[in-house]
Amino acid sequence: MTIAHLQNDYQYYYEPSLFGRYINADHLKNLLEKHSEFFEVAVIGKSVLNEDIHFIKIGTGEKRILMWSQMHGNESTTTKALFDLLNVLSDHSNETVNNLLAAVTIGIIPMLNPDGSRAYTRQNANEVDLNRDAQDLTQPESRVLRRCFDSFKPNFCFNLHDQRTIFSAGSTSIPATVSFLSPAQDEACSITETRKKAMDIIVKMNEVLQKHIPAQVGTYDDAFNINCVGDAFQTLNVPTILFEAGHYCNDYNREKVRALIFQSLWTAVMEIAFEDLKGIQAEAYFKIPQNEKLFYDIIIRNAKLKIDDSCQLLDVAIQYEETLDQDLVVFIPKIVKFSDLSHFFGHKEIDAKEREVFVGDHQHLKEGSAIDFVTINFQKHHLNV
């Protein structure tokens, strides 16, 4: 992947020590030490279980950008992309990078929720969703972020997340591989000047991404929730952008999506540094399709199933359940629904052609059960990633 304004392609900046879905604080230790040679790296707080929360400060420019990742501990794709970005920003042989760092100051919290990251859970160790704690600030991690926001005084915020595989880019059979949101600033979802600046950046990122993943970019519903961090910071008149790393075909480790998030981050930072954001792209922003929940990981279509002592012709929806097994995230196929799924799509689809579908030793399928394969017409179909 060639990146505008960079001397080398993406693989040159790719951070090889970070791979896959499971990223905890141990994975970042050596990288933080490495980057402390070029940037300011400091501990700015502790998690519930007393793990360090780090802050990386880069550049000297007037425009200040605050980014945070792994607010949800099991959402690690953007963390990987951040360390790819740090490899770029440490390349002082690149004149563009030097000019960039003279124009902006970037503050990064690479892992806001180290306890959740270690346990591979969305919540922190107190089972609180930090992205619903923006007002009450009941959790130490929430207070760390808010203190950082208050002291750093950003002009822009990037709220970095992963999204589930269920989302489509609009009412289509195309997955939402990358999604964005300029959060609402009030209950009326008014199109404020603050939101417009965030929209300008999103429109530019979308333009770049369309060259690589045409029609695979979506936006989220902007329903207002003051307890969400993005909405809370937007109400303080700081343009805030939600980044969501989604699904690309057969990319359950999210390595291809990681590259797309990296490119989006680079594009956004360049826009802030060198462009005059006039807030004129709202119309283009609202043309980006809004995410819908139209996908399952696997759909078995036209399956003959025995349900309540009768045979029925239905579709079978299978969703992967992510489970941490030592230091590896395992994707367990689970049957979630028997239904007519003609208005839904599978990242993988199997046509049973009205034949009976069995699991194991000629056993019938049951909702909620975990299965590795199904048998159709004496042929095994494996379901694992």
TrEMBL record:
Gene3D superfamilies: Zn peptidases (3.40.630.10). InterPro entries: Peptidase_M14. One of its GO terms (biological process) is proteolysis. The active site is at E244. It holds the Pfam family Peptidase_M14. Residues 12-268 form the Peptidase M14 domain. The keyword Hydrolase applies. Keywords: Carboxypeptidase, Hydrolase, Metalloprotease, Protease, Zinc. Its cofactor is Zn(2+). The keyword Hydrolase applies. GO terms for molecular function: metallocarboxypeptidase activity; zinc ion binding. It comes from the Bacteria. GO terms for cellular component: extracellular space. Belongs to the peptidase M14 family. This is Zinc carboxypeptidase.
